[in-house]
Amino acid sequence: MSETEPVTDRARAERRAHADYTGGVYGSMLAASVVVGAGTLGSFPYVELVLLLLLTGVAFWVAHVHAQLFGARMAQQGLDRRVVLHVCRDEWPIVKAAVPPAAAVAVSPLLGLDVQGALWLALAVAVAGQVGWSAAAARRAGASWRLVAVSASVNLVLGLLIIALKISLTH
Asked: What is the band of 109 on the pLDDT scale with cuts at 50, 70, 90?
């Protein structure tokens, strides 16, 4: 497909079928870690927590794009606009995974939550995202329902370990 050719529904469907959700799982774990780290440093205003989550996601997205472009990709093929855009799109789930926990923090005052409550809500949302991304990745890869459940369970255990870390650091 050339750069001037319109993107068809078929091309979009093919791209979705080959989607890699690794970045989503990684981004969700990253967001959970940011919440844990922020919670150990004291209270932050809600806006700062939202920005911390989103900007950390963007910073790690840039780092992953850079690593892909100037690490593995450069040795295998030259860089052109198409390759750069492809890598940026492939790594975007890292940023997308930070949005739900950030949104949880943003709406937490409407739910009557203090900053600690907002942190717990964001952590729960990040862990749920981690489990969801891993299940979606397994299913998209054609895994059996049993393997999807195993993948989700492993990621739930990892998320619970992050929660245990938060509990141990705050008590």
From this structure: very high
Per DSSP, helices labelled H in 41-144 are: 46-67, 74-76, 81-91, 93-96, 99-107, 115-140
Cβ–Cβ under 8 Å, residues 129 and 100: yes
Which pLDDT band, with edges at 50, 70 and 90, does 2 fall under? very low
What is the per-residue pLDDT across 48-76, written as a single tens digit (0 to 9) for each?
A: 889 999 999 999 999 989 888 887 656 66
Whether 54 and 102 have beta carbons less than 8 Å apart is answered as yes
Q: What does the alpha-carbon distance between residue 116 and residue 38 come to, in Å, rounded to a whole number?
A: 10
- Which residue from 83, 88, 31 is spatially nearest to 64, judged by alpha carbons? 88
Q: Which DSSP helix (H) or strand (E) runs through 158?
A: helix 145-170
As a whole number of Å, the end-to-end CA separation of the chain is 56
Within 10 angstroms of residue 116's Cβ, the number of other Cβ atoms is 11
Q: Rounded CA gap, 153 and 171, in Å?
A: 27
CA dist., res. 155 & res. 97, Å (int): 14
Q: Which two structure tokens, joined as six digits, stand for 39?
A: 């919670």
Q: Is the pTM of this model over 0.90?
A: no
4, two tokens: 């001037």
Give the position of tokens 């299913």: 139
